[in-house]
Amino acid sequence: LVKYGRGCLNKRMPEYVKNLSMRQIRILLNSYFLGDGGMCLKVKRYSTSSNMLANDIQELILKREKSIKRP
């Protein structure tokens, strides 16, 4: 696990996570939200002290949003 960051400020997602299916990414984000997230004014918020992990989560959220079909 050291390769995914040592100490709370250096945590990050493994590279393979970025290649998961949309279903798997949705499950991962929902699970992360249950542990380190919350609702504020009907907006989902994720929390981390690691900038690298925050960037990884943001990338997954953007990837998921792009996959949603809109009219």
* First and last CA, distance: 42 Å
Report the order of strands and helices. HEEH
Could you name the ranges where pLDDT drops below 50 across 5 or more consecutive residues?
Answer: none
Q: Structural class given helices, strands, pairing?
A: alpha+beta
Query: How many strand units?
Result: 2
How do the strands of the widest beta sheet line up side by side? 1-2
Q: Tell me the overall shape.
A: globular
Name the assembly state.
Answer: single chain
What percentage of amino acids are in beta strands? 5-15%
Count of helical regions: 2
The average pLDDT is 84
Helix content: 40-55%
Largest sheet: 2 strands, antiparallel
Radius of gyration: 13 Å
What are the defining features of this structure?
single chain; 71 residues; alpha+beta; two-stranded antiparallel ribbon; 2 strands; 11% strand
Blueprint of the fold:
Layout: H1 22-36, E1 37-40, E2 43-46, H2 51-67
Antiparallel strand pairs: 1-2
